[in-house]
Every structure is written in structure tokens, then in C-alpha cells.
Amino acid sequence: MSDQPMPSMLYQGLTKTYQIPIGHLDYTFIEKCTDVKHLEKILKILRSGEEGYYPDLTLFCEKRIECLAPGSRALRKDKPAATAADFTTEEWEEINGEIKSWMTEMQEDYKIQLPKTQILHERLDNLPPVRGSDSCVPIGQNQGSGKKQRKKKNIPRDYREWDKFDVEKECSKIDECDEENNSKSRLLTSSNVPQIERTIDLTGMSESEKFFIANREKEKGNEAFATGDYKEAVTYYDRSISVLPTAAAYNNKAQAEIKLKDWHSALQDCEKVLDMEPGNLKALMRHATANKHLQNYQAAIEDLTEVLYVEPENAVAKKNLLEMEQKLKDIKPVSKTHTKRQRILIQDIENSDGEEERERGSGDKKTGVLVQEEIATEKSEMGNVQKKFTSKGDGSRSDDKETQNQREHTGSGAKKGTSENRTPKHLPDQEAEVNGYLNNDKKKSGNSNVKEENLRSCETVSSSSGKSISTLLPPTAAKLKSEGNELFKNGQFGEAVLKYSEAIDNVINLGVQNPDDLSILYSNRAACYLKEGNCSDCIQDCNRALELQPFSLKPLLRRAMAYESMERYRQAYVDFKTVLQIDSGIQAANDSVNRITKTLIDQDGPSWREKLSPIPVVPVSAQQHRWDGGTFTSETKQKSVTDVSGDKQLQINSEKTEERFRILKTEGNELVKKGKYNEALIKYSECMKLNSQESTVYTNRALCHLKLCKYEEAKQDCNHVLQIEDTNIKAFYRRALAYKGLQNYQASVDDLRKVLCIDPNVAEAKKELEEITQFLNPNVTTSSQQKQRKKIKIHEVTESNKQESQVSTSEDAMINHIPSEGGAEKGVPLKRSEKLLISEPSTAYDFGQSINAVNARKDKAACADLLMIINPPKLPMLLSNKLDGDTFLIFIQALECYILGKNPGLVYQHLFYLSKAERFKVVLTLLSKNEKEQVRHLFELLSEKHNHQFSSEDLESLKRVYEL
Amino acid sequence: MSGGGLEKPQLIAHLQQALNYTAFQALWVPRSARFLCLGSLPRGTGIIQLYELQSGRLSLLRQIEKPKPIKCGTFGASSLQQRYLATGDFGGNLNIWNLEAPEIPVYSVKGHKEIINSIDGIGGLGIGEGAPEIVTGSRDGTVKVWDPRQKDTPVANMEPVQGESKRDCWTVVFGNAYNQEERVVCAGYDNGDIKLFDLKTMSLRWETNIKNGVCSVEFDRKDINMNKLVATSLEGKFHVFDMRTQHPTKGFASVSEKAHKSTMWQVRHLPQNRDVFMTSGGAGSLHLWKYEYPAQRSKKDSEGVEMGVAGSVNLLQNVTLSTQPISSLDWSPDKRGLCACTAFDQTVRVLIVTKLNKI
Fold first, then answer.
1. Domain span at residue A728?
2. Which spans of this chain does UniProt mark as WD repeats (chain B) (predicted)?
3. Of A197, A470, A879, B180, which one's alpha carbon is 20 to 30 angstroms from that of A955?
């Protein structure tokens, strides 16, 4: 490559510019050369093409330079803008998608024109006055620093100002001014102590503006933090929070405060974050750091364990945890009981807060003084602006005070929060809750309906216990809560969630600090979410509840269930295990643990345990021994028994037989729930030997007989009961079923009528009555055995619910409870649930909720109400793909019983659009004969009612659609 | 070469639109996906065009023609709710327009004898404490501060001493507005002078000369205690001043960097990160920079007086979009990485800068 002769012209060209011998344009030279400047020159020559075009060598040279000095300017090349080709498709799509979504967001935003006039005026009033009239600053060209001409004129020119005139102050100000003049550094001093307002004036700001400004202030804080101006960062975070409190701003502020070693404030801010976002890892870590520096090692350890619980691999947390534990060990001999120590520490925090507050206060005062001083200098500079500036200064001062007050306020609020959080758990309440759970949990079984019932009753228990123990709940919240409970029981989980949320907001807003109640509210809401299948929210609420009430049973169990249904088996396993630590007797938890263990072994192999996060150790105080629970339940059950059987039984039985009777009966009930009717039968029979007057045993045994299709025996049991109590509604009902089984339809109808006579609201009886009336109809020749069995099955469920209601301590809250004595009461408790609130559903979800509620009670009237308010064409949309046999049937029945008489046109419309619904065909094919008969019956009735809204041809074609 | 560069921010030319006039400035309308182009029609009249980003294209929503070519504009003194545009034109007029009803200006004043080269606003948009004010810099050598609430006369006027030759003021900005009282104006002149006026004390706080005409100055943020100032110059160099520490004699510490081979027309800081800024060059190039702070931002000199220490600047990315100068650039205040720029090839471009959140 290098030419020996070296053409003189080329050589000259080089020497002219860089004096580089041509021999340096060589791979070997470039490789060895370490002088970047020299290499850059070589690169320039190569690029210029003076010596010819050597792309490889150029590239090699570039690489060499890059290797030696990556930031070299010579490497900068003109590049075209990036295009799609420079990105992977995913990246490109992400970029494009982001822009697109932003554009649409902005377009939406633009449409919402912000309200103008009034707000703007308000804000204009708050603006500082127009700057003093046309003031000129003469400038020369680069003639050193400006010439400031100060007129010293500090004497007030207004009478009022004379009052404020403080001679000494003015004197000292003059001194200061002189000093400043001497040092010529007024500007510098002022820039060293920037006075940034800690709050932002919010008058006339819309929400979106607030959001924008809060975000901007936070960003300013972040930037200041990045440069290491932690004080400034804290100020800007404060400003952001003053506009819109966000967890992120508090979190960042805490970090800045940690940097400033302001541990107490950091601790408070972390707590605020954790209030807003429980389980925020960063906040937890910072909380731990602050605690560590406050020598609050126990608390720090708690934080760190929580972090490790979520993120077991967090190395920093692990390291800190070890350190903490070491420190704690060193200290331990000094202080023995850490609950006490914690208490003292809390007080410590409070005290120091006070101090801090005061410090800040004085700081603010200083600010005021400083402002004054500055005003003074202002005065000296420009006499004519004096007045305005003074007033401005005053204004800002009062502002300062106000903000200070505010801060004090929030500060104390937060303090309360912390101390409340730390208070030892409310034991009685918790116990009651746990017991309540135990009560219900006994009844837990695989049957989902029973389970649901179970949850309901446990809800009731928690609410009742909540009421009885804590009257701390504000009345509105308490009301909302009970409304929520009511809705929950009715199966309207979505609305219940709203009520609970309102209650929670209410409690939080009022600032009433009762973690127990709040915990229950969260726990209840979690139950709703669980029901709705919204597992993630359920988990979140459980977390909150647990934060307020560590190791309380129900939230734990619910979280466990939620985790399980989300297939997060490891967390579910840990939670179930924790539950079992609190109470080892919970069957559901035991079952689930076994089930999950299997799944985990399948999933992770034999070493599955290693992948689990550590199971928290439950403090003894929170553990509920089975034994305790047992006595408690027995007590309540006893009570319930006495409730049911009334006075009669108490007089006869000795305590011992009563005990035995009770055991036998509960065993019987258990067996019924498990579907072991034969065994249950034996138990009940034994019961009867002990006490033949107990009607519930007979009704229960009648149920068993019914299940076993021993209708004759069932009838006899019922007769027996009716001899003792001639108004026992259940006995009538079961006897009706027994007659039905015996195909003695007339007797069955009579009994059902009696049931309805005692309580006209028993929907099952009505339904049954209708069915049996149809059997009596000569048109129907035979009724298939299969159908009957199916019907009975439906009743089984409700029956067992009733069964439970007898055992449950919260009888009066049950929907289907029928008082076993005093038929004259005519189902007082039923009245509460009589009216199902039906509002027009706008979405398929609302509609589904209403339908669930309707289905749960077989409430045709409510269903009819619902159908009346729905615009028929919307029906397919509302039903979406949720049409099932039960819904279909209740529609048909509601149409027939309630709407047909009033508005046959609507019936036709509904039938027409029902046939358009999704899954209609499927449902239709799955209908049993008898159910089809009902549909046919409806059509027959409809054809009798002539209406201008539909012709007989229309009806015929529709009939064909319904495959009749 | 560019293979390994994907971790760096990339500049994507997202959309572009050819114009039939010379555009001097592109300006985003706050809280929207719209921007304005201000310029001069061939027949010597002024024009304001409102564009909106729509999927895959720019659509012209509105076009307003005014008698004088419009050199510059700002929303800085208007509230987020009003979004009034303040413009400076070739005739030295300062006008404030309600874009919903642009026929008559909301505020109008013949502020300068000659063209207004630069305008800046503060106190609106939630940026900057204190009263809304507009500053204009003109070829007549004066820098004037206006309060929209006061008609006809400026609230502050910075003009050359009698008898001295007037210098063309090319650029003005507000800064230091971190509380109700503090506020400064920085102005750059054709002879390389940079002057910092303190509006609180109504005095010249600092001045320097960077030898070449100052095309553009900007504070990294207007609404904080002055932090950094970037000034670009005619011969393709820019200076970053650390504005936190002012030495009584040495002034502010600075670092300079030569990037473009030609004039550096404008510098604009990323609204979401004050340490990232873009410079636009005479040869149609854009350079994206990041300022790195030194370990210690100030030190004591031999006499024990605090003096600032400058950091360094790193080039993050550079692209060449055109052969003609890029006259203006504006970052979208709402969307990180989105910016619009106008060039003398009579084109307005919308660019996307990626990975700005990872810097």
C-alpha cells in the first residue's frame, strides 16, 4: 500500500494540513498508535479522500479511536433520522402505539373544554400586582457589573406604616445594607438561601391542571434529587404533595429525607406511602432504613421481613435484616420487653415531631424576617414601589403561617395513624371474629351453595360482632356497612363493594382511627371481590385488612382462597398454613393445604418446599386454640337450640341428655350436608329417643327420608311434627313434597297452600304448587321421574340452607329462615328481603347481578319487575352469554304469572328477543319435558290474549323458534 | 457503526409536512396534540397555522393570516385554561391572540421600532411563580418586559445607554422564577454579549461575551432557582453555564462544546428532564445532549469565595434532517420525546426521540 517513491504532490498535501507522513495511513501504524489527536488527523485525511478511498482502513481507524476515546468528536458523523428499519417490530409498534394512544387521549382532552370565566377571575385576583411602572435598566456593552443606584429612603410615607415602624429594626437593616454594599454580594447571599414556597396556590385549578402541576413539581424534585440538592428536592416534593398527594411523591420525598438524615420525616412519609399503597416495597425498605437509624431495630426487622416475604431474593433487604438482628441481639439485654420499648419510641417520635414543627415554625419566621429585609433593600432602591412590596411581604408571611398550621395538622394526623397502627390488637374483637369464623367453618363442605351460605353467615357474624364491640365506627359508615352486608347476602356483590368502599372512604376521611373496623370493612369488601372473582382486588383488600389487623383469620383465609383461584399456589399455601397456625381446626384450610401440596409437588417436584417464601410465625396472642373455639361454638349452638325448641324442651331435659342430644343432632346435620342421609337418619332417630318433643329433629329426619325417597316415612315424621306444632311451615312443606313423591298431588297441593297461607312469601312453595297443579292437569299424563328428582334437588339446596339457619347464631339475618315456632309471626325476617331493589340495568354486568339475586331467591315478582323495565330489544345484549336454564325458566314463569295479565305485548316482545339471545338454542335443547310444558303453556295463554302488537302468525313462527 | 447504538436514544422523523411559506417557529399548544407554525408568506404577510397530529399524518386545522410576518410566539404567560398565544412580528408588534377568535388580538402593543426576534413568557401554564409576564427582544437593541394587564407600556425596559451603538438582540428568556419575587431575564446579542437582568432588583446581574453572536439562550428550567443556562452561538459552539454559584469576579462557571459545523440556531431543554437538551444546527442537523454534573458543583477559590464548577456534556445522538438550517425546535410539554421543528427547506417535522426515560 505505501508507495516507496512517495509522489511529492500528495506528500505536500499532507504536510500542508497535518504534517503526517503517508506511511502512517497503515493498519499496523494505526493499531499501535495511542495518540488520539494524531489518529483523528489520520481519520480526517482518510475521510477526505485526498489519498484515495479506503473504506476498510477508515473503519479500522474509527474503531481504534473509539477504543481509545469513545467520546471523540471525530467519531461524530452525520446520520439520517432513524426509521422503522432501525428497530425491531415490537419496539416500533410500541413507539407508534404510545404516540397513538397519547394522541387519542389528547384529542379527548381537547374536547372537554375547561370551564373558563369565573375561575380565571379568581386566579387573577391572587396574582401579584403589576411590576412597578416602566423602569429602565441602562445597559452598556460589556462594561463590568451593572451600576446599582440605591436611594436610601427607609422612612414610611403612610400613616399606617408609621405604626409598624420599628426603629431598631430599621437601624439594623441599614447596617445590614451597608454590610451588603461592602461585600457586594447581596445577590449571592440571596441565591444561597432560596425561599421557595412550600405550597402552591390552588385557586381555580381544574383537576387535570392539578395533576399536571403536581407531576411537574415532582419532576423538579426528581431533578433536584439527581443533582444532589436534597433540600430543594424535598421542597418540590412538598409542593407536589400540596397540589395532589401521591404515593410516589411521598416515597421520593422520604428518599430525599433519608439522604438529609431527617429520619423522623422519612419515617412519616413512608408510612403515608404505605397507607396509600400497602406493600410498596421501596417504601418498606425506606421505612426500614429510617427505623434502623432511629435505633428502632424491631420495627426495621418487621419491615424487612415483609419485603422478603414479597421478594425473597432481595439481597439488600437480606443483608440489612442480618445486620438488624445482630444489633437487636446486642441491645436485647438492655431492654427486655419490646412492646414497651416500641411504645416509648412512638412517644419519642411524637416529641421530636413537636420539636421539628417548632423548628420549622421558627424557620418560617426567619423567612418572614428575611422577606422583610429584602423589602427593606427594595425600599432603598426604588422608593416608589415601596408600598406594594410591603403588602406582598405581609401576604406571603401569613401564607407561611397558614401552611405551617396545615402541616402541623397533617403531621398530628399522621402521628395518630402511626400510634394507632402500633397499638396491640384488639383482642376481644379478634377473638369474636375468629370464633365467628369457626362457627361457620364447621359447616363448610364441598357443596358450593353451602359454602356461599357459609360465607354469608360469616359475614353476618363479623358485622354483628363488629357492631357489638366497636361503637367506634361513625354512624354513616356503620350504616353503609350494614347496607353492604345486606347486599352481600342478596348476592349483589358489585353493589356491596360500592357500599363498603363508601364506608371505607368515610372512615378514612373522618380520620377516625379504628383499625379493627377498617380491617373488617376491607375484609368484607375482599369477600365481595372474591365472590365476583376479582381475585387481585381481593388480595389487595386482604393485605390492607391484615396490615390493620395482622393475623386476623378471615382476611388471611380469603387471601388464601384468592391466591388459590389465581393459581398462585405458593402464596396460597403460605396463607393457608398461617391460617392453620391461628386455628388448626379449619377444615377448609386443611383440605386446601392438602390439595395445594399435591399441586405444588406436581409442579415443582420434591423440592417444592424450597421455593416457598417463609411462613410467618403467628404470635401466641393471635393463635386461637381449637379448644377455645369449641366451647364457644357449643355455647352458641346451645343457644340456638334453645331458641328453636323454645321453653318446652328446657323444662324436660336434664343437662346431660341435652348435651348428648345436641351432639347427635349436630352430627346429623353434618351428615346431611355431606349427603350421607342414611347415617344422618340414624343419628336423628337416636335424638328422638332422647327427646321426642323436638320438632326440628323430625323435620330434619323428614328431609333425610325425602332424600332417600322414603316418602311414606317422611310423611309420618311430618305428621308427628304437626301434631306437636300445627303451624310448622317446614313440616307442611316437606309433607307436601312427600305427598308429591307419593303422587298424591291433591294432598300435596293442600299442604303447599297451607304453607303459603302461613307465609305467602315462600317462593319454593309457590313454585312447587304451580308444578303440582300442572301434574293435576289432565293434559299431562305422566311426569318423568327424572324431572322430579331434579326438582327436588334444587330444593335440597335451599332446604339445607334452612337447616343451617337453625344452627347459625345469626338466624334473623338469614333470608330463608322460617321461624319454627309461632307461625303467627308470618316470617317477619323475610320482610326485609322481600323487596329486591330493582333498578334498570345499563350493562350486562348490572343485569347479571340482578338476575343472580333473582335466581338466588327464585323471586318471580322481582324478575317480572326487572323484565318490565327492560327494553326488550336490549335483552340479548344484557344477557350476553349468561343465559342458562334457571334464568330461562324464571323468565318464563315471571312472564306468565305477572306480565301476561298486564301487558301481553311485552310478553311477546320478550319472548321474541329472548330467542335472539346467545346460548338460547343450547338452553332450549337442555330443557326438560316439564319445563318445555311451561313454555308451551305460556304460549297457549298468550295466543288467547289477542293483541295488536303481534298477530297469530307471528306467534306461530315464534313458537317454531321455541321448538314447540 | 450504528449497530450497537440501539441502547441510545434514537431520533425518528415521525411526520413531515411541506409548507408554502417560511416557517420561523413551531410551537406546541399545551395539553393537546396540536402545534402551531409561525412564519412569513412569500407576499410579505404573516401566517399562523394550527396542525394536529392524527394517526399517521398532520392535518391542518386552521390558518390565520396577519399583516406582518410573525417571527416568534409563546404560550408561557397564558393559563392552561386560556392558552392565549403571544407573538412578536417583523413590525415590532407584540400581540396576544385568542386562537378561538383570532380576528382581533386580545392585547396589542407596538413595542419595538424594529423586528421582534425573540419572545418568552412566564407565570402561565403552571410554570413559574408570580405574575404572568412576556419579554421581547428586538433588533432595536431593547429588551422589554410586558404584563398583559398593563396596556401600552412595558413594566421593565432594558435598553442601551445613550450614545452607544445598538446591538441586535437575538434571543431572550425568563428564568429563576422560583418564588413570587425572584425573576431574571437573559438576553443574547449579535456581538456575543449575554446579559442577565434581575427583575427583582431591576439591575444587570451578570454579563459575559462568547465572542460570536448568541443565537439562542435557554435556562434548563424557568421556574427553579437558576440552575443552568445554555447559549448557542453563530459559529457552532455552545456554552453551558452553571448558574447556581456566582463568583463576584469570575461569574458563572461554564463548559463549551463545538458540535455543528455551522450556526447553532436553537437550544431546547427537554421539559421532562432538565439535563437533556437538543440543539438545532445550520446544516439541518439535530444534536441531543446530556449535561453531567461534576462531583462538586462549587469550590472555594484562593480567597475563600465560592465559585462554581462546570460539568461536562455528552452527545447522546445526532441526526441530519435537511440541508437547510433548522430554525426552531419545540418539545411537546405533555409527551416525553415528542418534538416539532421547522427548517428553512419550508418543511415542518414531527420527531420522536426514544428512550429518553432511560437516560
1. 655-777
2. 134-147
3. A879
What domain count does chain A have?
Answer: 5
The answer to whether residues A684 and A754 belong to one domain is yes
Q: Which 3 state secondary structure label does DSSP give B200?
A: coil
Instruction: Report pTM.
Output: 0.50
Residue A663: what are its φ and ψ, rounded to 5°?
Answer: -60, -45
The domains found in chain B, sorted by start residue, are: 10-354 (2.130.10.10)
Backbone angles phi, psi at A827, to 5 degrees: 60, 50
- Best of A99, A127, A370 to disrupt the B interface by mutation (most B CBs within 10 Å)? A99
Do the beta carbons of residue A151 and residue A135 sit within 8 Å?
no
Query: Over the stretch A587-635, which tens digit does the pLDDT of each residue have?
Result: 777 788 888 887 777 777 777 777 777 676 666 655 554 444 333 344 4
> Are B73 and B23 contacting, i.e. CB atoms less than 8 angstroms apart?
no
Q: Which of A279, A312, A345 is the last residue of a domain?
A: A312
Q: How far apart are CA A749 and CA A740, in angstroms?
A: 9
In sequence order, which residues have a C-beta less than 8 Å from that of residue B130 and are 6 or more positions away? Answer: A127, A128, B122, B123, B177, B179, B180, B181, B183
For residue A122, which residues of chain B lie inside 8 Å, CB to CB? Answer: none
Determine whether A100 is exposed, middle or buried from the number of CB atoms within 10 Å of its CB (0-12, 13-18, 19+): middle
The mean-pLDDT minimum among A338-347, A597-606, A710-719, A760-769 falls in A338-347
Nearest residue, CB atoms, A194 vs list B178, B191, B334: B178
Kind and range of the H or E run holding A654: none
**Is A678 in the B-facing interface, judged by CB distances under 8 Å?**
no
Listed by number, the residues of chain A in 181-200 with a beta carbon closer than 8 Å to a beta carbon of chain B are 184-188, 190-191, 194-197
Q: Are A734 and A702 in contact (CB under 8 A)?
A: yes
pLDDT, average across residues A548-558: 79
Q: Could you tell me if residue A722 is inside a domain?
A: yes
Q: What was the pLDDT predicted at A331?
A: 64
Does A406 map to a domain?
no
**Phi/psi of residue B166, nearest 5 degrees:** -80, 140
For residues B354 and B295, the answer to whether their CB atoms sit within 8 Å is no
Q: What is the DSSP letter of B234?
A: T
DSSP structure string for A421-465: HHSPP-HHHHHHHHHHHHHHHTT--S-HHHHHHHHHHHHHHHHHH
Alpha-carbon gap, residue A48 to A58, rounded angstroms: 10
Please check whether residue A609 lies inside any domain of the structure. Answer: yes
Answer whether A292's CB lies under 8 Å from A263's CB. Answer: no
All cell numbers assigned to A27: 493498519
Residues in A closer than 8 angstroms to B76, CB to CB, are none
Q: Between chains, do B320 and A78 touch, taking CB under 8 Å as contact?
A: yes
SS3 B107: strand
